[in-house]
Amino acid sequence: MKRKWFFLFAICASSVTLQAHNDTIIRQFIDTVTSVTLVPDSTLKQREEMVPADSTDRRGHYIQAHVGIGYGTLGYHLATPVSHVYGSVSAIFQAQYAYYFHQNWGVGAGLWFTEYMSYTHLGGQFKWYDQMDTDTEQHYDHIADVRRWVEHETLHNIGIPISVQCRYIWESLSGGKNLGIFGALGVAPSFTVLHKYRVTEGTIAHSGYYPAWDLTLEDLHEFKVKNYENDPRSRGEVNVKPQVDLFADLGLLVELTRQIDIFVGGYANVSLNSANNFPTVDKHGIGWQDEVFTFMEPYVGLYNTSAASASHPWEAGVKVGLHWHYVDHPTPQMVDYYDYFTRPDTTIQYIARQDTSIVEQPDEEYASEEGTGPARQTRMQMFAQEIEPFSKIYFPFDSYKLTNKAKRRINQVYSVISKESDIHIAVCGHASTEGQDPYNDNLSRQRANAVAQYLIKKGIDKDRITIRFFGSRVPNEDTEYEEMRRDRRVEVIIIDENEQTEK
């Protein structure tokens, strides 16, 4: 009987011990993580290469040449009946130097040659009262009836345009030519170098009214129709003062290359001061003095008569031009490179995962702090898998501009790496094999910078981004695009912050 109770006690004690032991069992599972990595066959090296200047920097020195054609006039009128002043075709030739101290703002100065032309149509009757007829010794009023009078006046000016300029470029998302706007506003002191008038039509009917007889005489002696077209006074020079012109340009810019832009737009300029506003004593009335009509004023052109109002020459039209931007020569710079790479390797890792709620003394092999050890490695691999479908951003030929498709991929990458503030990435730029190595290295660097700057603008801390560029030395093995095109890319890779190098 005692032996029976002993066995029952032993069985119960064993059961309690087993239950206590089961409460501290650690159940372990094995997870399989697959990752694709690019394994270098050599160490990272550096070498000095000539790197072209940044083509996005539009500051610096410019040479600009413009040609314009439009409508121009001397900008005055005649205070006489039935008289009109019309403008004509005008042209401008301009060359200047500009310096842009900002991406969009600069100042310019140069020379221009411009012309202003007017056709003046004179009409009406002009009278000289109480004149003496030497034949009859009678007093009479001399009447000059202008029937046809057309005068062509031309001013050719040399000016010194001084301007404030603005240019704004919209980057092309499709990899095509960049477009922008150009504007200039300034003043130009100018000096007339050629100033002439020429009468192309000139017919006047002279007559005399005799008050004593109440009679008007025509077609008698000096009273007749005279043609002044071939008169020596039908050509001459006009008196012109120096002017200060206000001018403006506005139009479209097309970037043909890194250095050359085409300008197409409009222009306008007007003289701020009067070009013919001399003292009245220096002006004459309208007259045609000769050996017969000695009482009249000598003819010096309509522009110089007292009948002409203040003259403000102006012109407006369309203009085309060429802008040449001086770009610095390539400069020496240290660049990173590898001799060559193997094909991407596939790595399979087995990660032990413990699944228990009660652990009295966990094994040190599986203990880790938050964000370190195997737990962190697993988390980084998980993020790497999330961005892998969007990790390659492609570019057009010879371009580092982000297309809409590229921006959509970068947005997907951003949505992953923005989840955790300790995720670090490497942005690796690449280029296809066309072109020389120095140029491709710089192009791949610009592509990597473009992606990095896009992420920074969206809010990613720049300290979390490492920029690398490899030119055309790392071919892309994917077949998403045809050969060459697939190499024009940037790859985004999740890295551990301990693996970062100095940017």
Topology of helices and strands:
Blueprint: H1 2-22, E1 27-37, E2 45-51, E3 60-73, E4 84-100, E5 105-121, E6 124-133, E7 138-159, E8 162-170, E9 179-210, E10 215-217, E11 225-227, E12 235-237, E13 243-255, E14 260-271, E15 314-325, E16 331-337, E17 345-355, H2 373-387, E18 392-394, H3 404-417, E19 424-429, H4 437-457, E20 465-469, E21 489-495
Succession of helices and strands = HEEEEEEEEEEEEEEEEEHEHEHEE
Could you tell me the strand content as a percent range?
35-45%
CATH class of the largest domain: Mainly Beta
Helix-strand category? mainly beta
Annotated CATH architecture of the largest domain: Beta Barrel
Query: In this structure, how is the largest beta sheet organized?
Result: 13 strands, antiparallel
The amount of helix comes to 10-25%
Features:
503 residues, Porin, 60s Ribosomal Protein L30, Chain: A, 13-stranded antiparallel β-sheet, 21 strands, 45% strand, disordered C terminus
Structure report:
With 503 residues, the protein is mainly beta. It folds into two domains: 60-325, Porin (Beta Barrel); 331-499, 2-Layer Sandwich (60s Ribosomal Protein L30, Chain: A). Helices cover 14% and strands 45% of the residues. It is built from four helices and 21 strands. The strands form four sheets. Strands 3, 4, 5, 6, 7, 8, 9, 10, 11, 12, 13, 14 and 15 form a 13-stranded antiparallel β-sheet that branches. Strands 18-21-19-20 form a four-stranded mixed β-sheet. A two-stranded antiparallel ribbon has the order 1-17. β6 and β7 form a beta hairpin. The protein is rod-shaped and about 130 Å long. It starts with a helix and ends in an 8-residue tail after the last strand.
